[in-house]
Every structure is written in C-alpha cells, then in structure tokens.
Amino acid sequence: MTFHLASIVSAFLLAFTSYQSVHAGANTFTAKPVRLGDNLLSILRQQGFSEKQREQVLASDKGLRNLFLTLDTRYLVRKSGNEVELRMFDSQTSAAFRILKKGASVQAGAYKPNYKTTHARIDGRVYGSLLGSVLAKINSNWVATRFMDAYVFDMASSRDVARGARFWFTVEKKYEAGQFVKYGEVLQTSLEIDGSPVQKKFVRYKDGGVFFSAQDLIEDRPFFAPVEYIKVASRFKPNRLHPITGRLQPHLGIDFELPVGEPVFAPRKGTVVRYGHNHAAGNYIVLLHSNGMETAYNHLYRIDKKIRQGLKVNVGEKIAEVGCTGYCTRAHLHFAVKKKGRMVDPIKYIKSYPPQMERLLEERVASN
C-alpha cells in the first residue's frame, strides 16, 4: 500500500514537472542582440517569416516601418510549435511592438511593455575624446550621446574637457519578460569642466524633458529651446560633408532629433516673415524677433494652419510639428539663428529648456 501510494505520488510529480517544463518553454522568451546590419526585415527573415509574411508585418502598423534598432538593444523571441512571437523595442523612443506568426497567419502591432527598470551608475575619466571615454565604460551610443546632450549648452566642444577629468552618470536599464532589452534615460550626470564638477539632472516634462542645473536658470540668452526634448543629432559646423549629397556644405544650425509630429514652439515673440516649402529645407518657417534676430525651422512635417506672413506669435506658441521633409535622413528639427545677416551658432543664444518648463524648473530649484 505504501509502495503503491509512493508510485502514484512519484508519477504525479513527474507528470507535473513535465507539464511545467512544456508550459514554461512555451512562454519563455530569449533575448537576441541586434547585430551589425540588422533591421526589422532581416530579423524577420532570420526567424522564419516568409517574404509575404514580412510584407504583412510592415503593412500592419506604420510605426514598424520607422522602428529604429541599435547594437545596444535586444529583441525577444518565443517559439512554441508553429508559433513564433517577437517583441521589438525602438532604441530611441518608448515604442514597442509585438509580432506573432502562427502557421501562415501573422499579427503585428504596438503594445505597452511591462518593464522592470533598474539603475546603473557608471564612473570614469576622460582620456582622448569625451564621447570615446564614455563609450569605453558603457558600450551604448544612445547612452554616450545622451551624456553629451547634458553638456551641449556648457561647452563649445568636448576639447574643453581636460585629460583625466572625472565623470559619472546613472542610467536606466529596462527589462521585459525577465530579459534586458534596452537602456532608458540618463538620469543624473557629473563632469569636470575647468576643474570643477558640473552636475545635471534629467527633469521630465510630459513626454519629454531636459538636462538641468540651477545655473541654467540664470543664463542670459535671448531664446528658449523650441522643443520639449533636447536630443542633439548635429551641431553648428561651418565645414561639413552633407550626409546625402556628399559635398562640403556648412551645417549652419543645430538639429534636434525627435519623432515625427512632436511640437515646435516659438522661442521668443516674433513675426512670421517667410514660410513654405523648398527642396532642401522641406516645409519651413522663418520668424523675425524684436531683437533684430531671425530664427528658422526646417524639415517640418506640418506647419500650423494659423501661420501666415505677418502673423505675430507669442513665446511658447506652437507653430509646427517635427518632420523629415526636404533633404532629410531621419526626423528632426533643423533650428537656425541669424544675427545681423549672418548665421550664428544657436547653442550660444538658446536656453536649455522650453518656456513652458521655466516655472517647473524654478519650483524645483526653490524646493531644493
């Protein structure tokens, strides 16, 4: 009787363990690294999606066509029988997508990940370039360039940082289904400039945010930032090879990289002197301000319906949306400043935050 009962219990435990194993295998995701040359189509092909199924995935959600992948991100794969599920995460936005292939049928669309977020602190010293020194500590272009964004208003170039200067920062690490998939926002930074540590905190605002220190509030600059998220793709460069034409062509402005449709704001009271469309700038607006300076906004997705020549706009008023029209490889706002008929570096004339954030930042400083 005892032997018989033990056999039943043993058989039950074996069956239950087998069930758990099958059940876990059917729901376990494996994290795959994005490799050099990978894109959505090549990943789908690697995971057994036919050409027709790949076309169906692209047609199912326009966001998937703009999915941006970098080498420091992962995607998730789950396979069970004739089912293949992929979870893809945009490297530079919060966009995430679930793709399910079951036999010949395919479903794909955006979803909201259930992220578990941890924080990591990275410390280092500057030897060589600042960007290279950060990359030597964390192999992520996204994180390294976000660190650079924190100080874009504080130094003319990274050469302003002395050899051996200390730096540190904290960054979010995001996990989905128990697997690391991407880095999030850089939250705090510190960098020695001219021998003294300059610390910045990332202050969130709606879907955006800026890097900020109390010193930024007293900067005497005539313009606010024209966007709510400071992500610099390219700075003012009088000598530059154009990424599309390949010719030596000055880059006489600063490029803020944001998704299509993000709002663009007037950085100071002004009057619309020109707007329209041309081959290079795409959709554009030019404002004239009371200090005699002009500001220009290129590659816009949409110009606000109220815009017309001679219209007066207030500081912080929405005038357009970020796009990628004209000569453009990725959605961004090209923002330029003209002073006394000459193009000047916008970094020297704009604050590190938009006007609608000023009160929030003042309250943050007062509370601290």
Shape: globular
Measured as a percent range, the helix fraction is 10-25%
**What is the rounded Rg?**
25 Å
Counting DSSP E segments of at least 2 residues, the number of strands comes to: 21
Helix tally? 7
Which runs of at least 5 residues are low in confidence (pLDDT < 50)? 5-25
What is the arithmetic mean of pLDDT? 89
Sheet/helix structural class = alpha+beta
Instruction: Return the string of H and E elements.
Output: HEHHHEEEEEHHEEEEEEEEEEEEEEEH
What is the rounded distance between the termini? 74 Å
Biggest pleated-sheet summary? 8 strands, antiparallel
User: Which percent range describes the beta-strand content?
Assistant: 35-45%
Task: Please describe what this structure looks like.
With 368 residues, the protein is of the alpha+beta class. The protein is built from 7 helices and 21 strands. Strands 11, 12, 14, 15, 16, 18, 20 and 21 form an 8-stranded antiparallel sheet that branches. Strand 3 (83-89) and strand 4 form a beta hairpin. Helix 5 packs across helix 6 (141-150). The chain starts with a helix and ends with a helix.
